[in-house]
């Protein structure tokens, strides 16, 4: 097995669990205005609308189950003795429920709440309202603990360190449209890592990844994990 692997996942890995992707036909950003529901300005303008959007996301995620791709990555990391770093842009908890530990949620977590005044974090209630009070500072600043457009993703230092040491960088189920995650493959290449894309179809300019495996994640990811173990 390769020594150090950094895996970046996106919405495509949860697609077969029934969670919508963002940019595919009929995806979330075709149904909702990103500026209204996924920016700090949108939240300031209409927090109730934003809460309702995430309440719906939370309900759908809670009703979904991890699929074979999530569990295959958990199996891989479980026997890698710390050599696999799993970074996800997804805010759902399907990696964790599939058995992964220490998942780096660079875009935050749907099931967590954040106080915009004092920075306290706690488990999200099923329904969040603009009038909800922070359990720490008692002010009405409750928001989903997710990263919106215009905000800085979480854990960037830890991710950069892992990429700098990686032998292999693997991108799974992401369109590569959103930075900084979209730039990880170039960073990994600059540090000498081999690069692999696993996606429904090749997402980026030819040659950016050393290898591309196309097809649905529930088939391709377990097959790749099995290949690594041979
Ligand atoms: P996208 O919706 O942009 O891309 C999903 C990718 O998954 C596409 O390349 C699809 O071809 C692929 N895909 C779909 N079904 C698949 C399957 N069954 N197996 C394998 N691949 C499949 O989603 P992301 O790239 O994750 O950020 O989006 C990145 C960020 O944009 C999200 O984290 C979110 C969004 O706006 C924020 O909200 C800040």
Amino-to-carboxy terminus distance = 8 Å
Note poorly predicted spans: none
Could you tell me the strand content as a percent range? 15-25%
Class of the largest domain, according to the CATH hierarchy?
Alpha Beta
The tally of domains stands at: 2
Query: What's the arrangement of strands in the largest beta sheet?
Result: 3-2-1-7-8-9
CATH homology superfamily name of the largest domain: TPP-binding domain
Helix content: 25-40%
What does this 3D model show about the protein?
The protein has 230 residues and is an alpha/beta fold. The protein has 2 domains: 1-18 and 64-107 and 153-230, TPP-binding domain (Rossmann fold); 20-61 and 109-146, 2-Layer Sandwich (SIR2/SIRT2 'Small Domain'), CATH 3.30.1600.10. 35% of the residues lie in helices and 19% in strands. It contains 10 helices and 9 strands. It has helices at 12-15, 28-31, 34-37, 40-45, 47-63, 68-78, 94-97, 156-165, 184-190, 217-229; strands at 5-9, 84-88, 104-105, 108-115, 121-123, 142-146, 168-172, 194-199, 211-214. Strands 3-2-1-7-8-9 form a 6-stranded parallel beta sheet, with helices on both faces. Strand 7 (168-172), helix 9 and strand 8 (194-199) form a beta-alpha-beta unit. Helix 6 packs parallel to helix 10 (217-229). The radius of gyration is 18 Å and the shape is globular. The N and C termini lie close together (8 Å). The structure holds 2'-O-acetyl adenosine-5-diphosphoribose. 2'-O-acetyl adenosine-5-diphosphoribose is lined by residues 10-12, 15-16, 21-24, 27, 38, 89, 107, 147, 149, 173-175, 177-178, 199-201, 203, 216-217.
């Amino acid at each position: 097995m390769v020594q150090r692997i950094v895996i970046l996942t996106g919405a495509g890995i949860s697609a077969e669990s029934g969670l919508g992707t963002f940019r595919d036909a009929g995806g979330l950003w075709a149904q909702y205005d990103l500026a209204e529901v996924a920016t700090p300005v949108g939240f300031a303008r209409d927090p109730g609308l934003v809460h309702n959007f995430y309440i719906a996301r939370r309900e759908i995620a809670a009703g979904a189950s991890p699929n074979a791709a999530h569990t295959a990555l958990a199996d891989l990391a479980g026997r890698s003795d710390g050599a696999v770093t799993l970074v996800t842009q997804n805010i759902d908890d399907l990696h964790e429920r599939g058995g992964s530990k220490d998942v780096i949620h660079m875009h935050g977590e749907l099931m967590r709440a954040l106080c915009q005044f004092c920075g306290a974090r706690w488990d999200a209630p099923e329904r969040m309202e603009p009038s909800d009070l922070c359990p720490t500072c008692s002010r009405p600043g409750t928001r989903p603990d997710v990263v919106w457009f215009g905000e800085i993703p979480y854990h960037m230092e830890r991710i950069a360190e892992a990429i700098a040491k990686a032998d292999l960088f693997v991108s799974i189920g992401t369109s590569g449209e959103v930075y900084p995650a979209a730039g990880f493959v170039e960073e990994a290449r600059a540090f000498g890592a081999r690069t692999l894309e696993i996606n429904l179809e090749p997402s980026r300019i030819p040659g950016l990844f050393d290898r591309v495996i196309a097809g649905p994640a529930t088939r391709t990811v377990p097959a790749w994990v099995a290949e690594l173990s041979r």
